Amino acid sequence: MTNRLRDLRGDRGWSQQHLAELLEVSRQSVNAIETGRYDPSLPLAFRIAELFELAIEDVFVSPAKEK
Amino acid sequence: MANPTTKSPAQRRYNMGILGCSTGYAAALFGATAYFGNHPDARSVTAYAAAIMPALLIIGMFFVIGRYLVEERDEYQRILMVRQTLVASGLALSLATLWGFLESFDLAPHVDAYWLAVVWFAGLGLGACVNRLTLGRAA
């Protein structure tokens, strides 16, 4: 699933490690989500969206809308 | 996991559990080998206990892995371990099935069943390699 996590993180000047600390997950988790290798669960996706004070669809692109 | 550079509490418990079971296994195996070396025909309760103890510590490792999957709060780390256990189970069951048929038709020598656990643990290592190859830095 495509997402804007890398851009959002970059806009704030955060490292993957810092974002991982804020989300209370491992750096590998952040890396996997950013690179689209792992789609987070709905609760984690909400945590990410809420951290950036955005709606979930402003962070993650619906697969239906990618086509 | 508050600090990604350190292990999560579940990972620390996992490491301690595996270390404890491994140490206990080595001691139990040494003890059992020594006991049956001195009592080759033993059939007592002590003999059964000595024979079963190494197995119980291997079973303990399975329990530690299961507990890790339940306790790990980082869902991505959890899925990595699930993938490893799937690779391990697939490898061990496939080899056991292949070997079983070969042995049934007298095309292969008998292999003690506990080797299945050894192959399974080797499969965990293979699973980690598969994670690394398919997920790169994220694994």
Architecture overview:
The complex is a heterodimer of chains A (67) and B (139). Helix content of chain A is 61%, strand content 0%. With 67 residues, chain A is an all-alpha fold. Chain A has one domain: 434 Repressor (Amino-terminal Domain) (Orthogonal Bundle). In chain A, helix 2 packs across helix 3. The radius of gyration of chain A is 11 Å and the shape is globular. In chain A, 28% of the residues are buried. The model of chain A has no long low-confidence stretch (mean pLDDT 95). By secondary structure, chain B is mainly α. Chain B has two domains: 1-73; 74-139, no CATH class. Chain B is flat. The model of chain B has no long low-confidence stretch (mean pLDDT 94). Chains A and B meet through helix 2 and helix 3 of A and helix 3 of B.
Q: Could you give a short account of the major beta sheet of chain B?
A: none
Structural class by helix and strand composition of chain A: mainly alpha
Instruction: Name the average pLDDT of chain A.
Output: 95
Count every beta strand of chain A, where a strand is a DSSP E run of 2 or more residues. 0
Protein traits:
heterodimer; A: 434 Repressor (Amino-terminal Domain); 61% helix; B: 139 residues; mainly alpha; 4 helices
Can I get a quick summary?
The complex is a heterodimer of chains A (67) and B (139). Chain A has 67 residues and is mainly α.
Set out the fold topology.
The complex is a heterodimer of chains A (67) and B (139).
Chain A: H1 5-11, H2 16-23, H3 27-34, H4 42-51, H5 56-59, H6 63-66
Helix pairs in contact in A: 2-3
Chain B: H1 9-38, H2 45-71, H3 75-104, H4 115-135
Helix pairs in contact in B: 1-2, 3-4
